[in-house]
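Kindly go through the entry underneath: sequence plus C-alpha coordinates. Please state briefly how this chain folds according to its C-alpha coordinates.
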Amino acid sequence: MKNFIIGGVSALALSAFAWSASAESIVLGAAVSQSGKYSTNGQHTMNGYNMAVERINANGGVKVGDKTYTLEIKYYDDESTPARGAELAERLIKQDGVKFLLGPYSSGLTKAIAPVTEKNGVPMVEANGASRSLFNNGYKNLFAVLSTSEQYLSSAITLAAEQATAAGRDPSSLRIAMAFENDPFSQDVRAGVMDDVAKYGMKIVIDDKLPKDLTDMTPTMTKVRALKPDLLVVSGHSKGAATTIRQLSEQNVYVPMLAMTHCDSADIIGKFGAAANNTLCASQWAPTLTYSDELMGSAADFAKAFEEKYGYAPPYQSAESAAAVEVFASAFSRAGSLDQAAVRDALASTDMQTFYGNIKFDAAGKNIAKPMVLYQVQDGQLKVVAPTKWAEAKIIFPRPRN
Protein backbone atom coordinates (compact mmCIF):
# COMPACT_ATOMS: atom_id res chain seq x y z
CA MET A 1 0.00 0.00 0.00
CA LYS A 2 1.24 3.43 -0.92
CA ASN A 3 2.27 5.65 1.95
CA PHE A 4 0.29 8.89 2.18
CA ILE A 5 1.97 12.05 3.49
CA ILE A 6 -0.02 15.25 3.54
CA GLY A 7 0.92 18.69 4.78
CA GLY A 8 4.34 17.43 5.83
CA VAL A 9 2.80 15.11 8.43
CA SER A 10 3.02 11.34 8.09
CA ALA A 11 -0.28 9.52 7.71
CA LEU A 12 1.16 6.07 7.11
CA ALA A 13 -0.86 2.94 7.21
CA LEU A 14 0.89 -0.30 8.18
CA SER A 15 1.58 -2.44 5.13
CA ALA A 16 -0.70 -5.12 6.51
CA PHE A 17 -3.53 -2.63 7.06
CA ALA A 18 -6.69 -3.17 5.02
CA TRP A 19 -10.07 -1.44 5.23
CA SER A 20 -12.93 -3.44 6.67
CA ALA A 21 -16.60 -2.79 7.14
CA SER A 22 -15.89 -1.94 10.76
CA ALA A 23 -13.11 0.58 10.04
CA GLU A 24 -13.80 3.89 11.77
CA SER A 25 -14.57 6.92 9.66
CA ILE A 26 -14.39 10.65 10.09
CA VAL A 27 -17.66 12.02 8.73
CA LEU A 28 -17.58 15.40 7.04
CA GLY A 29 -20.93 17.11 6.57
CA ALA A 30 -21.83 19.15 3.50
CA ALA A 31 -24.99 20.96 2.42
CA VAL A 32 -24.38 21.44 -1.31
CA SER A 33 -26.66 22.60 -4.14
CA GLN A 34 -27.99 19.59 -6.02
CA SER A 35 -31.02 21.50 -7.32
CA GLY A 36 -31.77 25.14 -8.03
CA LYS A 37 -29.69 27.74 -9.84
CA TYR A 38 -26.36 26.61 -8.37
CA SER A 39 -26.85 22.91 -9.11
CA THR A 40 -24.21 22.80 -11.88
CA ASN A 41 -21.50 24.21 -9.64
CA GLY A 42 -22.84 22.18 -6.75
CA GLN A 43 -22.10 19.04 -8.76
CA HIS A 44 -18.60 20.29 -9.55
CA THR A 45 -18.12 20.87 -5.82
CA MET A 46 -19.29 17.39 -4.88
CA ASN A 47 -17.13 15.77 -7.56
CA GLY A 48 -14.06 17.50 -6.12
CA TYR A 49 -14.91 16.49 -2.58
CA ASN A 50 -15.61 12.89 -3.59
CA MET A 51 -12.46 12.52 -5.64
CA ALA A 52 -10.27 13.67 -2.76
CA VAL A 53 -12.02 11.39 -0.26
CA GLU A 54 -11.66 8.38 -2.54
CA ARG A 55 -7.99 9.14 -3.19
CA ILE A 56 -7.21 9.60 0.52
CA ASN A 57 -8.97 6.38 1.48
CA ALA A 58 -7.25 4.45 -1.32
CA ASN A 59 -3.88 5.70 -0.07
CA GLY A 60 -4.25 4.53 3.52
CA GLY A 61 -6.64 7.05 5.02
CA VAL A 62 -5.76 9.55 7.72
CA LYS A 63 -3.61 8.77 10.76
CA VAL A 64 -4.86 10.59 13.84
CA GLY A 65 -2.77 9.86 16.90
CA ASP A 66 -2.42 6.08 17.01
CA LYS A 67 -5.55 5.36 14.96
CA THR A 68 -6.21 5.38 11.22
CA TYR A 69 -9.52 6.54 9.77
CA THR A 70 -11.30 6.59 6.45
CA LEU A 71 -13.12 9.74 5.39
CA GLU A 72 -16.72 9.93 4.29
CA ILE A 73 -19.14 12.74 3.48
CA LYS A 74 -22.78 13.10 4.50
CA TYR A 75 -24.56 15.29 1.94
CA TYR A 76 -27.81 17.22 1.91
CA ASP A 77 -29.26 19.32 -0.91
CA ASP A 78 -29.48 22.98 0.10
CA GLU A 79 -31.65 23.68 -2.98
CA SER A 80 -29.50 26.77 -3.76
CA THR A 81 -31.32 28.57 -0.93
CA PRO A 82 -29.45 30.22 1.97
CA ALA A 83 -32.20 29.57 4.53
CA ARG A 84 -32.26 25.89 3.59
CA GLY A 85 -28.48 25.72 3.82
CA ALA A 86 -28.49 27.11 7.35
CA GLU A 87 -31.25 24.69 8.34
CA LEU A 88 -29.31 21.72 6.99
CA ALA A 89 -26.08 22.79 8.69
CA GLU A 90 -28.00 22.82 11.97
CA ARG A 91 -29.37 19.36 11.16
CA LEU A 92 -25.92 17.96 10.36
CA ILE A 93 -24.54 19.25 13.64
CA LYS A 94 -27.45 18.74 16.04
CA GLN A 95 -29.20 15.65 14.65
CA ASP A 96 -26.47 13.83 12.75
CA GLY A 97 -23.66 14.60 15.20
CA VAL A 98 -21.25 15.77 12.49
CA LYS A 99 -18.24 17.56 14.00
CA PHE A 100 -16.64 18.98 10.85
CA LEU A 101 -18.20 20.64 7.80
CA LEU A 102 -17.15 21.22 4.23
CA GLY A 103 -18.55 24.37 2.68
CA PRO A 104 -21.46 24.74 0.26
CA TYR A 105 -21.27 26.29 -3.19
CA SER A 106 -21.45 30.11 -3.38
CA SER A 107 -20.76 32.97 -1.03
CA GLY A 108 -24.44 33.45 -0.25
CA LEU A 109 -24.84 29.90 1.02
CA THR A 110 -21.53 30.08 2.91
CA LYS A 111 -22.64 33.32 4.53
CA ALA A 112 -25.83 31.59 5.74
CA ILE A 113 -24.02 28.53 7.13
CA ALA A 114 -20.99 30.20 8.76
CA PRO A 115 -22.92 31.63 11.76
CA VAL A 116 -24.28 28.15 12.47
CA THR A 117 -20.87 26.49 12.47
CA GLU A 118 -19.37 29.33 14.49
CA LYS A 119 -22.10 29.19 17.14
CA ASN A 120 -21.56 25.45 17.55
CA GLY A 121 -17.75 25.50 17.48
CA VAL A 122 -17.67 23.38 14.30
CA PRO A 123 -14.65 23.91 12.02
CA MET A 124 -15.62 24.45 8.38
CA VAL A 125 -13.20 24.37 5.46
CA GLU A 126 -14.85 25.92 2.46
CA ALA A 127 -13.78 26.15 -1.16
CA ASN A 128 -16.50 28.10 -2.94
CA GLY A 129 -17.40 31.12 -0.83
CA ALA A 130 -15.06 33.91 -1.91
CA SER A 131 -16.93 36.98 -0.68
CA ARG A 132 -14.60 39.15 1.38
CA SER A 133 -17.52 40.04 3.64
CA LEU A 134 -17.33 36.48 5.02
CA PHE A 135 -14.06 37.36 6.69
CA ASN A 136 -15.10 40.55 8.47
CA ASN A 137 -17.11 38.86 11.21
CA GLY A 138 -14.38 37.57 13.50
CA TYR A 139 -15.19 33.92 12.79
CA LYS A 140 -12.68 31.51 14.32
CA ASN A 141 -13.95 28.31 12.69
CA LEU A 142 -14.15 29.36 9.03
CA PHE A 143 -11.26 28.61 6.64
CA ALA A 144 -11.30 29.26 2.89
CA VAL A 145 -8.78 27.70 0.50
CA LEU A 146 -9.67 30.03 -2.39
CA SER A 147 -8.71 33.62 -3.16
CA THR A 148 -11.28 36.19 -2.08
CA SER A 149 -13.73 37.75 -4.49
CA GLU A 150 -12.32 41.24 -4.86
CA GLN A 151 -9.33 39.67 -6.63
CA TYR A 152 -11.34 37.84 -9.33
CA LEU A 153 -11.42 40.43 -12.11
CA SER A 154 -8.84 42.93 -10.90
CA SER A 155 -6.29 41.37 -13.25
CA ALA A 156 -8.63 42.14 -16.16
CA ILE A 157 -8.55 45.85 -15.33
CA THR A 158 -4.75 45.72 -15.05
CA LEU A 159 -4.54 43.84 -18.35
CA ALA A 160 -6.75 46.43 -20.06
CA ALA A 161 -4.51 49.21 -18.74
CA GLU A 162 -1.40 47.39 -19.99
CA GLN A 163 -2.92 46.95 -23.45
CA ALA A 164 -3.91 50.61 -23.61
CA THR A 165 -0.40 51.72 -22.64
CA ALA A 166 1.15 49.42 -25.24
CA ALA A 167 -1.08 51.01 -27.88
CA GLY A 168 -0.01 54.52 -26.83
CA ARG A 169 -3.28 55.27 -25.10
CA ASP A 170 -3.77 56.65 -21.61
CA PRO A 171 -5.48 53.96 -19.45
CA SER A 172 -7.64 56.67 -17.91
CA SER A 173 -9.37 57.06 -21.29
CA LEU A 174 -10.81 53.53 -21.09
CA ARG A 175 -14.59 53.23 -20.69
CA ILE A 176 -15.85 50.31 -18.61
CA ALA A 177 -19.20 48.50 -18.63
CA MET A 178 -20.18 46.32 -15.66
CA ALA A 179 -23.00 43.81 -15.10
CA PHE A 180 -23.16 41.92 -11.80
CA GLU A 181 -25.56 39.60 -10.05
CA ASN A 182 -26.97 41.04 -6.83
CA ASP A 183 -25.43 38.40 -4.56
CA PRO A 184 -22.59 38.70 -2.00
CA PHE A 185 -19.94 37.16 -4.23
CA SER A 186 -20.65 39.18 -7.36
CA GLN A 187 -21.07 42.43 -5.48
CA ASP A 188 -17.67 41.90 -3.88
CA VAL A 189 -16.18 41.22 -7.32
CA ARG A 190 -17.75 44.52 -8.38
CA ALA A 191 -16.17 46.31 -5.41
CA GLY A 192 -12.75 44.99 -6.41
CA VAL A 193 -13.26 46.12 -10.00
CA MET A 194 -14.38 49.55 -8.78
CA ASP A 195 -11.20 49.90 -6.74
CA ASP A 196 -9.00 49.06 -9.71
CA VAL A 197 -10.96 51.25 -12.12
CA ALA A 198 -10.49 54.16 -9.71
CA LYS A 199 -6.76 53.45 -9.44
CA TYR A 200 -6.36 53.97 -13.19
CA GLY A 201 -8.88 56.81 -13.44
CA MET A 202 -11.06 54.90 -15.91
CA LYS A 203 -14.69 55.84 -16.53
CA ILE A 204 -17.61 53.53 -15.75
CA VAL A 205 -20.31 54.02 -18.40
CA ILE A 206 -22.57 51.07 -17.49
CA ASP A 207 -23.16 49.68 -13.99
CA ASP A 208 -26.01 47.16 -14.19
CA LYS A 209 -27.42 44.54 -11.86
CA LEU A 210 -28.27 41.29 -13.59
CA PRO A 211 -31.90 40.10 -13.43
CA LYS A 212 -32.64 37.68 -10.63
CA ASP A 213 -33.14 34.66 -12.89
CA LEU A 214 -29.95 35.49 -14.89
CA THR A 215 -31.63 34.56 -18.18
CA ASP A 216 -31.95 37.88 -20.04
CA MET A 217 -29.36 40.67 -20.29
CA THR A 218 -31.02 42.54 -23.15
CA PRO A 219 -31.05 45.94 -21.35
CA THR A 220 -27.29 45.66 -20.76
CA MET A 221 -26.67 44.52 -24.33
CA THR A 222 -28.63 47.50 -25.66
CA LYS A 223 -26.48 49.89 -23.61
CA VAL A 224 -23.25 48.20 -24.71
CA ARG A 225 -24.25 48.55 -28.37
CA ALA A 226 -25.08 52.23 -27.90
CA LEU A 227 -22.20 53.31 -25.63
CA LYS A 228 -19.41 51.16 -27.10
CA PRO A 229 -17.33 50.55 -23.95
CA ASP A 230 -13.75 49.27 -24.20
CA LEU A 231 -14.29 46.50 -21.63
CA LEU A 232 -17.32 44.60 -20.37
CA VAL A 233 -16.95 42.79 -17.04
CA VAL A 234 -19.63 40.33 -15.90
CA SER A 235 -20.17 38.19 -12.81
CA GLY A 236 -23.29 36.08 -12.52
CA HIS A 237 -22.01 32.58 -11.71
CA SER A 238 -22.31 29.93 -14.43
CA LYS A 239 -25.80 30.93 -15.54
CA GLY A 240 -24.81 34.57 -15.99
CA ALA A 241 -21.70 33.59 -17.94
CA ALA A 242 -23.73 31.45 -20.33
CA THR A 243 -26.34 34.18 -20.83
CA THR A 244 -23.62 36.74 -21.61
CA ILE A 245 -22.01 34.67 -24.38
CA ARG A 246 -25.35 33.59 -25.82
CA GLN A 247 -26.82 37.08 -26.02
CA LEU A 248 -23.65 38.79 -27.28
CA SER A 249 -23.81 36.34 -30.17
CA GLU A 250 -27.58 36.37 -30.72
CA GLN A 251 -27.81 40.17 -30.59
CA ASN A 252 -24.54 40.73 -32.49
CA VAL A 253 -23.09 43.00 -29.80
CA TYR A 254 -19.37 43.75 -29.95
CA VAL A 255 -16.98 44.79 -27.20
CA PRO A 256 -13.16 44.89 -27.61
CA MET A 257 -12.51 43.10 -24.29
CA LEU A 258 -14.84 40.81 -22.35
CA ALA A 259 -13.97 39.47 -18.89
CA MET A 260 -16.18 37.19 -16.78
CA THR A 261 -16.28 34.83 -13.84
CA HIS A 262 -17.38 31.17 -14.08
CA CYS A 263 -16.53 30.58 -17.76
CA ASP A 264 -15.30 27.03 -17.25
CA SER A 265 -18.09 25.87 -14.95
CA ALA A 266 -20.59 27.31 -17.46
CA ASP A 267 -18.82 25.33 -20.23
CA ILE A 268 -18.98 28.31 -22.59
CA ILE A 269 -16.66 26.55 -25.04
CA GLY A 270 -18.71 23.37 -25.20
CA LYS A 271 -22.05 25.20 -25.35
CA PHE A 272 -21.23 28.12 -27.62
CA GLY A 273 -18.16 27.13 -29.65
CA ALA A 274 -16.59 29.99 -31.61
CA ALA A 275 -18.85 32.55 -29.90
CA ALA A 276 -16.81 32.02 -26.72
CA ASN A 277 -13.46 32.76 -28.37
CA ASN A 278 -11.31 35.55 -26.91
CA THR A 279 -13.32 35.80 -23.69
CA LEU A 280 -11.22 36.47 -20.58
CA CYS A 281 -12.09 34.18 -17.71
CA ALA A 282 -11.18 34.61 -14.05
CA SER A 283 -9.98 31.39 -12.46
CA GLN A 284 -8.78 30.22 -9.10
CA TRP A 285 -6.66 27.51 -10.73
CA ALA A 286 -5.32 26.15 -13.98
CA PRO A 287 -4.01 22.64 -14.80
CA THR A 288 -0.94 24.22 -16.44
CA LEU A 289 0.30 25.66 -13.12
CA THR A 290 3.29 24.02 -11.45
CA TYR A 291 1.74 23.22 -8.06
CA SER A 292 1.84 19.61 -6.82
CA ASP A 293 1.43 17.39 -3.77
CA GLU A 294 1.99 13.73 -2.93
CA LEU A 295 -1.69 12.80 -2.93
CA MET A 296 -2.86 14.24 -6.25
CA GLY A 297 0.46 14.77 -8.02
CA SER A 298 0.67 17.86 -10.21
CA ALA A 299 -2.16 20.13 -11.27
CA ALA A 300 -2.04 18.39 -14.65
CA ASP A 301 -2.17 14.95 -12.97
CA PHE A 302 -5.30 15.96 -11.08
CA ALA A 303 -6.92 17.29 -14.24
CA LYS A 304 -6.21 14.06 -16.12
CA ALA A 305 -7.48 11.81 -13.33
CA PHE A 306 -10.57 13.94 -12.83
CA GLU A 307 -11.48 13.87 -16.52
CA GLU A 308 -10.98 10.11 -16.65
CA LYS A 309 -13.29 9.69 -13.67
CA TYR A 310 -16.04 12.22 -14.44
CA GLY A 311 -15.83 12.64 -18.21
CA TYR A 312 -15.07 16.35 -18.33
CA ALA A 313 -12.16 18.67 -17.60
CA PRO A 314 -12.21 19.92 -14.01
CA PRO A 315 -13.35 23.50 -13.48
CA TYR A 316 -11.56 25.28 -10.68
CA GLN A 317 -14.57 24.70 -8.40
CA SER A 318 -13.74 20.99 -8.40
CA ALA A 319 -10.03 21.55 -7.86
CA GLU A 320 -10.51 23.87 -4.90
CA SER A 321 -13.09 21.50 -3.41
CA ALA A 322 -10.63 18.61 -3.54
CA ALA A 323 -8.00 20.85 -1.91
CA ALA A 324 -10.40 21.63 0.95
CA VAL A 325 -10.59 17.92 1.80
CA GLU A 326 -6.78 17.68 1.67
CA VAL A 327 -6.53 20.55 4.16
CA PHE A 328 -8.92 18.83 6.55
CA ALA A 329 -6.95 15.57 6.28
CA SER A 330 -3.73 17.41 7.03
CA ALA A 331 -5.28 19.16 10.04
CA PHE A 332 -6.61 15.90 11.50
CA SER A 333 -3.13 14.39 11.29
CA ARG A 334 -1.38 17.42 12.70
CA ALA A 335 -3.90 17.81 15.54
CA GLY A 336 -3.38 14.18 16.55
CA SER A 337 -6.94 14.30 17.83
CA LEU A 338 -10.52 14.72 16.64
CA ASP A 339 -11.20 17.31 19.32
CA GLN A 340 -12.82 20.20 17.47
CA ALA A 341 -10.72 22.89 19.15
CA ALA A 342 -7.50 20.99 18.39
CA VAL A 343 -8.49 20.55 14.75
CA ARG A 344 -9.46 24.21 14.55
CA ASP A 345 -6.01 25.22 15.84
CA ALA A 346 -4.33 22.85 13.36
CA LEU A 347 -6.33 24.41 10.52
CA ALA A 348 -5.26 27.88 11.63
CA SER A 349 -1.58 26.85 11.42
CA THR A 350 -1.89 25.30 7.92
CA ASP A 351 1.01 26.12 5.62
CA MET A 352 1.14 23.65 2.74
CA GLN A 353 1.26 23.25 -1.02
CA THR A 354 -1.40 21.26 -2.81
CA PHE A 355 -1.89 20.55 -6.51
CA TYR A 356 -4.34 23.48 -6.36
CA GLY A 357 -1.86 25.96 -4.92
CA ASN A 358 -0.26 27.13 -1.70
CA ILE A 359 -2.54 27.35 1.31
CA LYS A 360 -1.87 29.46 4.37
CA PHE A 361 -4.60 31.16 6.39
CA ASP A 362 -4.52 34.61 7.94
CA ALA A 363 -6.24 35.35 11.25
CA ALA A 364 -9.58 35.81 9.48
CA GLY A 365 -9.37 32.41 7.73
CA LYS A 366 -8.53 33.69 4.23
CA ASN A 367 -5.94 31.93 2.09
CA ILE A 368 -3.14 34.47 1.62
CA ALA A 369 -0.74 32.24 -0.33
CA LYS A 370 -2.35 31.83 -3.79
CA PRO A 371 -2.97 34.31 -6.67
CA MET A 372 -5.86 34.33 -9.15
CA VAL A 373 -5.19 33.67 -12.83
CA LEU A 374 -6.90 34.92 -15.97
CA TYR A 375 -7.62 32.63 -18.92
CA GLN A 376 -8.49 33.62 -22.46
CA VAL A 377 -10.44 31.33 -24.74
CA GLN A 378 -8.19 30.95 -27.80
CA ASP A 379 -9.35 28.68 -30.64
CA GLY A 380 -11.56 26.75 -28.27
CA GLN A 381 -8.85 26.30 -25.61
CA LEU A 382 -8.37 28.02 -22.26
CA LYS A 383 -4.94 29.68 -22.12
CA VAL A 384 -3.55 31.49 -19.07
CA VAL A 385 -2.69 35.07 -20.10
CA ALA A 386 -2.29 36.76 -16.69
CA PRO A 387 -0.53 37.31 -14.36
CA THR A 388 2.49 37.45 -16.63
CA LYS A 389 4.46 35.12 -14.31
CA TRP A 390 2.03 32.28 -15.03
CA ALA A 391 1.10 33.17 -18.63
CA GLU A 392 1.26 30.43 -21.24
CA ALA A 393 0.02 32.60 -24.13
CA LYS A 394 -0.25 36.24 -25.17
CA ILE A 395 -3.62 37.92 -25.01
CA ILE A 396 -5.56 38.41 -28.25
CA PHE A 397 -6.67 42.04 -28.12
CA PRO A 398 -8.88 43.56 -29.29
CA ARG A 399 -11.34 40.72 -29.76
CA PRO A 400 -11.83 40.19 -33.50
CA ARG A 401 -15.28 41.05 -34.80
CA ASN A 402 -17.33 38.11 -36.03
